[in-house]
Specification:
alpha/beta; 4-stranded parallel beta sheet; 47% helix; globular
């Protein structure tokens, strides 16, 4: 049993605090939705511009929106963006060059636009162009500010009648999970999962609403635990990745598959998971399953997302690293600025 109390000394950037306050952050974030004016209604589709920890909000929104939502992680916007597109720029720092470039291009095509940011060049651009922006609280890592980057949008889409699910119900559902994941809790599923994944290369599988959640697990393990992790989605992975299991025993001995499951998974996806488990067992690739909890698809997806954040936090501690710093990202941004 790891000495979690001692390992917490590694958390110099106070990721634990940001994690533990997530349900309350969501409540604050729901209140920020009023910054998105009702006058923006009437769009036919939405494009979310962002990168990394900011962009994931777009992927989740897309899964619960009843109108088409596309996340663009690029310098340029799709050719079909027009006056009927709701353009949403998300950049925690407000300084991300890809997001700024795409937003500058986008606001020449549609005036239905909004930004979510702490400030920076993105907020300045909004002020200049008289575009509303949602002020996100400073002091977080972008990935730890997901409540503030996602929930104003979920709430706004719900208000406009474009959302499948009730974002107001999420904080209570997640408080139960938070209470069971705190470091002092015995029978702590996040700690157990982190121990199971320790010194493994996680390959996280989602399907439908859990696809972006699987991606979030991967990126949180990368950034918090500073280790490789991968993801894929069902049913697509049954058409390619499955063939790669053949030599997994030889070239991927550290691999471990994590299936993210909900009670709302498509019945054929459920069958596929059962078959895949048999294939994985025969190929000697270990796997585990994690089931979301909650009354709705939205609650279960966010339950799994939040659990993944906890797992990546404990994995960081087991790896002997501070979860917060992302030095390689900052170094790359610094070098690009010099060019
Ligand atoms: O997690 C991170 O720090 C990154 O993925 C950032 O979110 C990404 O580089 C984009 O920066 P920002 O969120 O400030 O736009």
């Amino acid at each position: 049993m790891p000495a979690w109390k001692e390992l917490l000394a590694l958390d110099r950037g106070r990721m634990l605090q940001a994690l533990a306050e997530f349900p309350e952050q969501i409540e604050r974030a729901l209140g920020l939705a009023c910054r998105i004016p009702n006058g923006l209604q009437g769009f036919k589709n939405a494009v979310v511009l962002g990168m990394g920890g900011s962009a994931i909000a777009g992927d989740i929104l897309a899964r619960f929106s009843t109108i088409p939502v596309v996340t663009v992680r690029d310098y340029e916007i799709p050719s079909w963006v027009n006056a009927e597109t709701f353009l949403i720029a998300i950049s925690y720092s407000g300084e991300t060059e890809e997001t700024l470039s795409a937003f500058r291009e986008g606001i020449r095509r549609t005036r239905k636009a909004v930004a979510l940011t702490t400030g920076g060049l993105l907020a300045a651009l909004c002020e200049e162009e008289e575009i509303p922006w949602v002020p996100v609280p400073p002091g977080f890592q972008p990935r730890a500010a997901i409540a503030f980057l996602l929930f104003p949008l979920l709430k706004c889409f719900a208000r406009f009648g474009y959302l499948r699910g009730n974002p107001d119900a999420v904080p209570d559902a997640l408080r139960r999970l938070r209470d069971s994941c705190l470091p002092e809790k015995n029978e702590n599923s996040a700690q157990t999962l982190a121990q199971t994944l320790f010194e493994k290369v996680p390959v996280v599988y989602g399907a439908g609403i859990t696809s972006p959640v699987a991606y979030r697990w991967k990126t949180q393990i990368n950034e918090n635990a500073k280790q490789p992790a991968y993801w894929a989605e069902l049913p697509e992975l049954c058409h390619n990745e499955i063939v790669g299991y053949e030599l997994a025993g030889k070239v991927f001995s550290q691999g471990m598959v994590v299936f993210l499951r909900t009670s709302f998974d498509h019945p054929r996806v459920q069958k596929r998971v059962e078959i895949l488990k048999g294939v994985l067992s025969r190929r000697g690739l270990p796997f585990l399953e994690v089931f979301g909890e909650g009354d709705s698809p939205l609650e279960q997806a966010l339950w799994l997302l939040y659990l993944g954040d906890w797992v990546s936090f404990y994995l960081a501690l087991l790896n002997g690293v501070d979860p917060t710093p992302v030095q390689p990202i900052q170094e790359l941004k610094r070098r690009l600025k010099e060019i």
